[in-house]
Design a protein that fits this description.
With about 475 residues, the chain is mainly α. It is built from 19 helices and 5 strands.
């Protein structure tokens, strides 16, 4: 695996490239995916299928940055600084765009663009190494993968910044452009704190492929960055003076017998299913490349946590794994193709066929598929009523709203989540969707009691239609 000093120096001088080398082919596919992602996520928002947790939170943070304030989100608490919850300074990059277009749609479009552009380096590498046909299979496999589909349709999340960075870093690493791999990996430290381990994994692979000094430096930066952020920065910024997510790891081990803990937590069926599904989308070929090791940190922290939402393939938690898997797939197929024996090429064709079929089979089960269902585009009378009711709330006031109504208001009001403890008391307006299946943080009984208490406390009912109720404090 070692490379000569001359080769190392030559590769170090090569800069990251996602332009002409990737060809119009990759950019054209990225454009198609961008349109699909943007249309899907914007339509979900129009149908009240986006939520305060998490789109509303991120919009408040970006809006705060765009106004010159320190990334505050009222949905987490009065004056709550988001950098006390997660280390995500990359969100500042969205502030200029939000300043021009102050809407949650700005975040959804930005996420769509970031997810789509990650296909460019992957397809470019696949086309150079394998040809146009395999590159198309890789591009569509990534673009329709469950991890990307789930993330695009579920609100906005900071991991959108990580997806193209990982794709670019691993493409550079696969082509032995070591400095480029490091240059694309290090910004991950500014996306979210747990990605420090991903940076460390990439650094170790850089060292494994021959650039030892650079690789170990990148790995050290990842580990040191993670430690400093989790033990120093986040506690200093947090109102509780501690990193909020440490308690999620291993807590259930103290609450149940060891045998039960092994069966229900360590070897939970949903974890095994997630691992199988994640590897199956590349026909398990990704396992033949060392690049797959970059997926280990993300899977490790998810499976180690006691929060069961982390264990499955829903939400946005698998998004950052998708460029890792398809980069590892390209590397594995490239090695297979280099084998002169006929069975090498035969194996590659079989694996590509599986990679082409599996995402198509899984796609109808992903939320992105809703874009192609006719009912997604039918007019819903309730949506018109909701727009009318929300339109009665003036700009700049404080509002407590249902989870699915929060993102409809965060660009023009001070919005909090109705029923969430510890928020500012006595908002000027309350608006609740009593028919929403997403009842967080209150169940139906708790919500009705809270509404009754508000009315008994003096709030006036302004509108009560189609399951929506609008209250105003005198």
């Amino acid at each position: 695996m070692a490379i000569t000093p001359t080769e190392t120096a030559s590769r170090w001088r090569r800069l990251p490239s996602i332009g002409p080398a990737s060809s119009y082919f990759g950019w054209g596919l990225a454009l198609v995916l961008f349109v699909l992602y943007a249309v899907s996520s914007i339509r979900a928002h129009q149908l009240l299928q986006t939520y305060g947790y998490d789109l509303g939170i991120f919009e408040q943070v970006v809006r705060s940055y765009s106004e010159g304030r320190p990334g505050v989100t009222e949905l987490k608490g009065p004056g709550f600084r988001q950098l006390g919850d997660h280390f995500t300074p990359a969100l500042i990059l969205l502030a200029p765009f939000y300043r021009l277009f102050p809407s949650p749609i700005t975040l959804l479009v930005a996420q769509s663009a970031l997810m789509a552009v990650a296909v460019v380096p992957l397809v470019g590498w696949a086309r150079r190494a394998l040809g146009t046909g395999p590159a198309l299979v890789v591009g569509l496999g990534y673009g329709l993968s469950f991890g990307i589909a789930q993330a695009v349709r579920f609100d906005f999340h900071e991991v959108a910044f990580a997806v193209p960075l990982v794709a670019m870093s691993l493409t550079a690493l696969g082509e032995r452009r070591m400095v480029a791999a490091a240059a694309w990996a290090l910004p991950l430290l500014l996306v979210k704190e747990d990605l420090g381990l991903t940076v460390a994994a990439i650094g170790l692979l850089i060292a494994f492929y021959g650039a030892r000094r650079l690789g170990f430096a990148v790995a050290a930066a990842g580990v040191i960055g993670l430690v400093l952020v989790v033990t120093v920065f986040l506690p200093a910024m947090s109102p509780d003076g501690a990193y909020a997510y440490t308690s999620m790891v291993g807590g259930s081990a103290d609450a149940m017998p060891l045998g039960q803990y092994v069966r229900e937590v360590l070897l939970a069926p949903v974890k095994l299913s997630t691992l199988f599904t994640t590897l199956a989308i590349t026909a398990f070929a990704a396992l033949r490349s060392p690049l797959i090791l970059v997926a280990v940190p993300t899977l490790a922290w998810r499976f180690a946590a006691d929060k069961q939402e982390y264990w499955g393939i829903g939400y946005h938690y698998s998004a950052v794994l998708m460029p890792v898997l398809f980069a590892a797939l390209i590397a594995a197929l490239t090695r297979t193709r280099s084998v002169e024996a006929p069975e090498g090429r035969r194996i590659m064709r079989v694996e590509l066929a599986v990679v082409a079929v599996v995402p198509l089979l899984l796609f109808p089960g992903t939320p992105l598929y809703q874009t192609f269902r006719s009912e997604t585009w039918r007019d819903d009378p309730r949506i018109a009523v909701a727009r009318s009711i929300l339109g009665e709330i003036p700009d700049g006031v404080m509002v407590a709203a249902s989870n699915n109504l929060v993102p409809q208001l965060t660009n023009r009001t001070l919005t909090t989540l109705f029923g969430f403890p510890g928020l500012r008391p006595n908002p000027q307006w309350i608006v609740v969707d009593r028919l929403s299946p997403q009842g967080y943080p209150l169940n139906g009984e708790q919500r009705d009691k809270a509404l009754a208490d508000a009315i008994a406390g003096g709030y006036q009912v302004i509108r009560d239609e189609a399951g929506f109720i609008l209250l105003k404090r005198p």
